[in-house]
Amino acid sequence: MNNTDLFDFVFMSMTVLTGVGAIDVTMPQSQYEFARGDNITLPCSFKSAININTAEAVTPIITYYYPIKKTSITPPYKGRVSLDVDVLNGKANLKLSSISLADNKEFECHVQIPDDEDGNQAASARLVVLVAPSTPVCKIQRTAQYGQDITLTCASAGGSPMPTYSWKRYCEHNQPVPQDPQITDKDGILSLYNISKDTSGFYICTSQNKLRAATCNLTLSLMPPSVNAITTGGIIGRVLAYLIFLIIIIIIFFFCQNK
């Protein structure tokens, strides 16, 4: 099985086992979700019609051969994995400490008992490691000028599962503003069309997954075109007046020189 880790509980008893039956190995759920860094348990149960010799003590294991007490733990898991076994009650629970994204995979519990090979000898479950979204970064793409189309972007560097994004706008009185139907909000990209003073405001982006949420914000400010026009017109008018005044002075100067 691809991307699947196996933990075995193998019985190798020298005692003659009698009886006919079928082993049944189960894991209660097909998927488990935990936050990164948690210490977790993946439960595994088994049933057999064969009598099992429980005279030897059972130790926490990954692969354990009963009753010869042979244990095998693969190097990546040494120091943070154990198997909680209760033979009488048919339990073999896998314990993992400080789980990381590397543990985001399928785990299979396999129980092998001599003379009991019929039935279901294995069960599997998916371990989903949850990672909170990192604090997103909000940006304005292009210069915010009156009448232009611009986009606001929001993105988190990490998160498992992948976070979803949503934008909200607030006015100067910190009141939420209903979103314009012409505005599109997809995958953290907020597209604003033909922007005006009414587009100004305080924008908050929320990045969220099953574990928790994180936010970033920015302020969009615009001046109406009339103000820009008046400002530009005033500057041009002053420049023209200065040039006219300068021309008059030059004419008077030459007129006086010719007398």
Keywords:
four-stranded antiparallel beta sheet, single chain, Immunoglobulin-like, mainly beta
Q: What's the gist of this structure?
A:
Helices cover 13% and strands 40% of the residues.
Provide a descriptive summary of the structure in words.
It contains one helix and 20 strands. It is mainly β and 259 residues long. It folds into two domains: 4-130, Immunoglobulin-like, CATH 2.60.40; 137-225, Immunoglobulins (Immunoglobulin-like). It has a six-stranded mixed β-sheet with strand order 3-12-10-1-6-7, with no helix packed on it. The protein has a four-stranded antiparallel β-sheet with strand order 13-14-18-17, with no helix packed on it. The chain has a four-stranded antiparallel β-sheet with strand order 16-15-19-20, with no helix packed on it. The radius of gyration is 36 Å and the shape is rod-shaped. The chain starts with a strand and ends with a helix. This is Ig-like domain-containing protein. Residues 133-221 form the Ig-like domain.
